[in-house]
Amino acid sequence: MEVTDVALLLLRLVVGVTMIAHGVNHWIGGGRIAGTARWFGGLGLRNGVLQAWLSVITEIGAGALLALGLLTPFAAAAVISVMLVAGLLAHRANGFFVFQEGYEYVLVLAVIALVLGLLGPGRLSLDHAAGIEVAGWAGGGIALGVALLATAGLLAVFYRPAPAPETTTEEVR
Residues 61-106: pLDDT tens digits? Predict the structure, then answer.
């Protein structure tokens, strides 16, 4: 066993468990599905309940797959896509720093997921055990390409932000 395999396992476990916790929180934490649905609606996503459930399933599923090292490029793609949507809709306008609700955190998770797609899950994974390990440009390409397509599809179908209120000349003065 090489140190790289242990390092990849640690990255997969940390990001995987983080995603599982994030999905569980959207499901049963705080405002539960209804609260998550309202939050997504406030971000401009239509069909908030569907969005909430898709988020829960994607986050828990991708987290579990990453932690196990199974279908790693696709699990990485799901993480990248979730973080890209969050970064674009919830955090981009707030700048970089996470303490100001910025995109710092989602950027780090997305890049780690891309790195896992590029490097592969390592020997301590189900992908390796099953002989289906995909890494290098192919793994990174799958992770990034699928993530970009999924994000674009989700936004094209569901993103309908409320129009900005019109200003009058009285309000401008």
Answer: 999 999 999 999 999 999 999 999 999 999 999 999 988 989 999 9
pTM reported for the whole predicted model: 0.92
Residue among 72, 44, 42, 52 at smallest CA distance from 136: 72
121 token code pair: 């899950």
Length of the chain: 173
Q: Are the beta carbons of 66 and 16 closer than 8 angstroms?
A: yes
Q: Find how far residue 60's CA is from the centre of its chain.
A: 11
The string over 4-26, giving b where at least 16 C-beta atoms fall within 10 Å of a residue's C-beta and e elsewhere, is ebeebbebbbebbebbbebbeeb
Place of tokens 């790693």: 72
Rounded distance, CA 138 to CA 147, Å? 14
Burial of 167 (0-12, 13-18, 19+ CB in 10 A): exposed
Q: Are 117 and 140 in contact (CB under 8 A)?
A: yes
Q: How many alpha carbons lie under 13 Å from residue 8 in its C-beta half-sphere?
A: 27
